[in-house]
Every structure is written in structure tokens, then in C-alpha cells.
Amino acid sequence: MSHVGIIGTGSYLPEHIMTNDDLSNFLDTSDEWIRTRTGIRERRISTDMTTSDLAYEAGVRALENSGLKSEDIDLIICATITPDYFMPSCACIVQDRLGAINAAAFDLVAACTGMIYGMVTAEQFIKSGMYENVLVIGSETLSKVLDWEDRSSCVLFGDGAGAVVMSKSRDGGKILTSKLESDGSKYNLLTCSAIPLQNPYVNIDNSKEAKIEMLRQPKIKMFGQEVFKYAVRTITDNINYILNKAKLTKEDITYIIPHQANQRIIEQASKSCKIPIDKFFMNLDRYGNTSAASVGIALDELLSSGQLKRKDRIILVGFGGGMTSGSILLEWS
Ligand code: COA
Prior knowledge:
alpha+beta, Peroxisomal Thiolase, Chain A, domain 1, nine-stranded mixed β-sheet, globular, binds coenzyme A
């Protein structure tokens, strides 16, 4: 049976760099606190580009890298929690700008696990024979939904986009196995509200507090410590599950690309999986947590660095709001 694989990657980060010191100019925080608690030194913040602009730039790069033309793409999936519009989808805007006239296009919401959900979805479409070439993009402008007065959350995130082109495997990374998971009972741990119910018959909670809350712009809210514990547990469970399923051992894995949320989460997961920390790829010091974009950006950077060799095996593992989690085992060829 032929495998589904990655035949091109790309990423795009907005130019503007926001350092920890920049944050401490208007927040009660410090470079020392942020670095020691998270590993983050700086992040990129978009000053003029929307989520679909970033997605387009990452998509163009992945397409060029794959050697395909935009007309060859049958499906575009954009994973994002910060779209430009409720409608149209970010994927449709990207389709138009790329001139991918033969593609279907839709957005997918799985928060920080978005790239992995997108890739596994693409894998199924290709395996079923419905589509041949799929462009998967994770793109976010999280800066527009951050509460810039909440020091425990806004310091963690940044903007950016990552993309992969997937097809029946030729050269590149082929997917050996994958897994998706959700735990909706924990949906409240990490949220970003949309608009409230608004119509002539609205009759929900008339309390003043509820009204004030409803009038607020969408903002990310988070129970940090609970999310931290969920993240460590879920990275560990995913890695163990996927190794078991593929009948491989930790020694068979060259790199792990975890969702780039917090260095301490990754260090604790490394300990609990008993996999050396130097196998875990990290770039969160430069970009912070870019949600659905993070795994795609990291994969693109790892590939561009030329460190991957034939037969190297990589685990991509993500977690995020929902709560959602997922993982993919890739073999490079
Ligand atoms: N600067 C300075 N102090 C800060 C701060 C900041 N940016 N953010 C929080 N603090 C303070 C808190 O107010 C608290 O002060 P107090 O003891 O006086 O009340 C103290 O630091 C400790 O807070 P705590 O929440 O216990 O810190 P922590 O070690 O759990 O780190 C997070 C907080 C958010 C960094 C950590 O919980 C985390 O990374 N969680 C996971 C979040 C995540 O990854 N979300 C996205 C998942 S996709």
C-alpha cells in the first residue's frame, strides 16, 4: 500500500518582533519571568497582515517547495481560530489568491492541534482516492484575540503560518501512522468567545455582568496550570500510543516536533516519556505559541536546516483548546 506523505513545506512569520522587554513596558512582567517560566524570548506580531495573508505566504512557499502548480491542488484546508471572516473561509481566500482553481477549500478549528487535525484529514482524503494533492495551512493572528492586560496569557502567544503540501508519497515524509483525540469535557480550560446571541427575542441571562461580558471583544481565557498538566500528559500519551501502534521504540525516533507552547511543558514531557530533550525540536524562544501554525513552522524549519536524513522518523504531536490532541509519525525518504 502506498503511503500519504509531505512533498513540500513552507512558513511565514510577520516581520515585527515583540520582545519580552517590550511587554514589560506596559505589563507587570519581566524578561526573566517569561524566559524562566516559558522559554519564550520574543514573538512576531502582525502589524498589517491578516490570517489569510499569512496563510497565503506560507502556502505559496509550500507549493513552490513541492514542485506542484496551484492548479494541481485539489483541496485546501486552513486550520485557524483567528479567521479574517466568519464567512468566507480563510481557505477560500487563499484559493483565490493562489489561483488554485481546481480546489475545494474549507477551514478547520482544532485550536493548537489544528495543523495535525488538518494533516490527518488530508491524509484520509488522499487515502480514499477522492483527492490527490492537498495544501494544509495552519495560520493565526492570535494577537487580535489576546487580552493584552492579562500577563498570564498574552505573553505566551504570537502570529505566524506554516503549510504543507500532501500527496501520495514520492520523496519526502511519509505518514506511517496518526492519531486524533478530543476531550470536550475540558472545553472550559482554554476559550476564546465568539459573538453573543443577538436577535429581537434574546432572553438569556439578563444580569449586568453577563451583559458586560457579552459586549467584550473575543479574548483568549485560560486556566494555565490545568492546561499545563493536560499538555504534559497528552504529549506523553500520544508518543507512547504512536510508538506502540507502529511497533517502534523511542530509539527509532530521530526527532519529535511538539506544539510549541512552553519549554517547561516539553521538558516535563521529555522526562515522562524518557526521551532525551535534544530530540525535541524547539523554536518557541523566537515565535512563542503560534497555535495552529506552530507545528507547520517547526517542521519547515527542521527541514530547511538540512538536519533530516533518509529514514529518519519524526513524531509531530500537538494539543490545544477543545481540548484536542493528536500526533503523526513520519518517515523521511
Ligand atoms: N509575569 C510575571 N508574573 C506572572 C506572569 C507574567 N507574565 N504571569 C503570571 N504571573 C504570576 C502570577 O500572577 C502568580 O503570581 P502570584 O503568585 O502572586 O499569584 C505567579 O506568577 C505564578 O503564577 P502561576 O500561574 O502559578 O505560574 P505558572 O508557573 O503556572 O506559569 C503559565 C503560568 C501560564 C506560564 C503556565 O501555567 C503555562 O504555561 N500553562 C500552559 C499554558 C499554555 O501552554 N497554553 C496554550 C496551550 S495550547
